[in-house]
Amino acid sequence: MTRINTEYGQLPPAFFFTRLTETISAYGDAHPEHKLLRLGVGDVSGPLAPVVIEALRRAVSEQSRPETFHGYLPEVGLDFYREAVAAYYGRWNVRLSPEDVFVSSGAADDLGAVGNLFSRDARVLVTEPAYPAYVDTNLMAGRTIIHLLGTRENGFLPLPAADLDVDLVYLCSPNNPTGTAYTRAKLQQWVDWANARQAVIVFDAAYEAFIQDEDVPHSIYELPGALNCAIEICSLSKTAGFTGMRLGYTVVPGALAREGLSLRDMWKQDRTTRTNGVSYILQRAGQAALSPEGIRQNRQAVARYQENGRILAEALTKADVWFTGGRNAPYLWLPCPEGKSGWEFFDCLLQTAQIALTPGEGFGQGGEGYVRLSCFGAREDTEKAARRLMEIL
Ligand code: PLP
Structure pTM? Predict the structure, then answer.
């Protein structure tokens, strides 16, 4: 008999998003007279910035000529891309060496792979509700997970107790699904705790481009001590509309070492063993997206989503509904009325207001009884949904 990884049997069935998609499309099919207001989307609507399109065209043309053609590339990323990412961090006065920066095919890939650096016995803490990959990839690896819940009382920004005893912590700020973001002072508590415990923080910064408040850090490395205890995983998916392009970066600082080993060296070894890098064309596109002009052009798209956040937040405030998010992240998170479950409230809003959102149950523990609204919908849909929410809530 073949011995397979039976840990996969520990995973929650993957029915949540299937059920969600099927329910929404069944409703759409049954009611062609209604236009659905899609506030469940976690995807950007594009298009890519002109400066990125131009870089893509140039790179394709380079690949068409023998003298400028590129074959296999360094697995860890091309120098120009690693330098562009390091320069991007300079905007927040974070000094990274390009050697600390590793190219990836997006945050999801590296959130899955980062576990390779830790032992099967590592105790893993996930702050929840959360993007499901943190829990699921660790379950696949057979690790025990400790769940630290975000609640209304802690503002969905849980903090470490001094005696918290784990090896690895996943933090996501700005957060999907709750839209909350750690301030410098709060995040510093995690950094200090991790350094005191010799733990490692995996910091998911996928939504950093949405931050509007001055006291919210874009990178964990803005905080003293973070270079000694954190790996940061980010991507251009939400920053530059690259969800369909697949390009990201992971930062493993040279100063991060545990048990006498450099995690940066380990990650380099891991990447060169398990991957063959990312295409030349994509890395040129990424370099363009992170250039001053790329940043300027991409801000316009982000600003559209931020405006949706403002519209939804204003509606909920007028309706006197408690919520988090909508300001530093493209999501708002709110409790369901009258003790309804996330699914019940989802059904109710779909049937009565044609609003499609995401039940909190999809984000693990602490998600029950909440729903997530996304700011990635069309402006017109968002405005209509905001008006209907004000009437219903
Ligand atoms: N991390 C969080 C918190 C996300 O919400 C997502 C995608 O929605 C990802 C990571 C994955 O992003 P990527 O497209 O870079 O794989």
Answer: 0.97
User: What atom in ligand 1 is closest to the CA of residue 106?
Assistant: 15
In this structure, the answer to whether residues 226 and 141 fall within a common structural domain is yes
Cα(66) to ligand 1 centroid in Å equals 36
Residue-wise pLDDT tens digits, 122-149: 999 999 999 999 999 999 999 999 999 9
Specify the ligand 1 atom closest to the Cα of 43. Answer: 8
Q: Given 275, 292, 309, which residue is the final one in a domain?
A: 292
Do 269 and 370 have their domain in common? no
Q: What is the mean pLDDT of residues 267-275?
A: 98
Q: Is the peptide bond before 129 cis (omega within 30 degrees of 0)?
A: yes
CA distances to 70, 81, 129, 136, 262 from 359, in Å: 45, 38, 12, 19, 41
Domain of residue 40, CATH code: 3.90.1150.10
Domain of 243 in residue numbering reads as 50-292
Ligand 1 pocket check for 181: Cβ under 6 Å: no
- What strands, in cross-sheet order, belong to the sheet with 324-325? 324-325, 331-335, 370-374, 358-359
Count of domains for the chain: 2
* Cβ contact 141:112 at 8 Å: no
